[in-house]
Amino acid sequence: MPFLRMREAACPATSVRQALACCASHKTLIGTAAFIGTNSSLVAPVKIGNGAYIGSGSVITRDVPDDAMAVERSPQNNREGGAARYREAKTRHKKPKG
């Protein structure tokens, strides 16, 4: 079997047949000799090609071709005053104790 089929954690299947029926639209296929770096997330459905490398900490949302290297990280987005606005909104909706 050239590809490893991974099952979604939310799929309640107890057999391979049930898993294939339940998660058919959410397949993640990993090719032979592919390397998946630590702390990586593969957002199904994706196909990782044979011999492909996935960089550590990457969030992969698209297919990776054979023998390709994929490194995907979103850029940092700083919002000035965002933490203060969040805390204020959270305390406004907080119910008083007692």
Give a description of the structure.
It is a single chain. Helices cover 18% and strands 21% of the residues. It contains 2 helices and 8 strands. The longest helix has 11 residues, at 82-92. A 3-stranded mixed beta sheet has the order 1-2-5, with no helix packed on it. Strands 3-6-8 form a 3-stranded parallel beta sheet, with no helix packed on it. It has a two-stranded parallel sheet with strand order 4-7. The chain has a single domain (3-92), classed as UDP N-Acetylglucosamine Acyltransferase, domain 1 (3 Solenoid), CATH 2.160.10. The model has no long low-confidence stretch (mean pLDDT 80). The chain is elongated, with a radius of gyration of 20 Å.
Helical proportion, percent range? 10-25%
Q: Average pLDDT, to the nearest integer?
A: 80
CATH topology (fold) name: UDP N-Acetylglucosamine Acyltransferase, domain 1
The side-by-side strand order for the widest beta sheet comes to 1-2-5
Oligomer: single chain
| Morphology | elongated
Low-pLDDT segments = none
The computed structural class is: alpha/beta
How many E-type strands? 8
Q: What does the radius of gyration come to?
A: 20 Å
Number of domains: 1
Write down the secondary-structure element order: EHEEEEEEEH
- Proportion in β-strands: 15-25%
Instruction: Characterize the main sheet.
Output: 3 strands, mixed
Please write the CATH class name. Answer: Mainly Beta
Q: Using the 3D structure, state the CATH architecture.
A: 3 Solenoid
Distance between the terminal alpha carbons, to the nearest Å? Answer: 62 Å
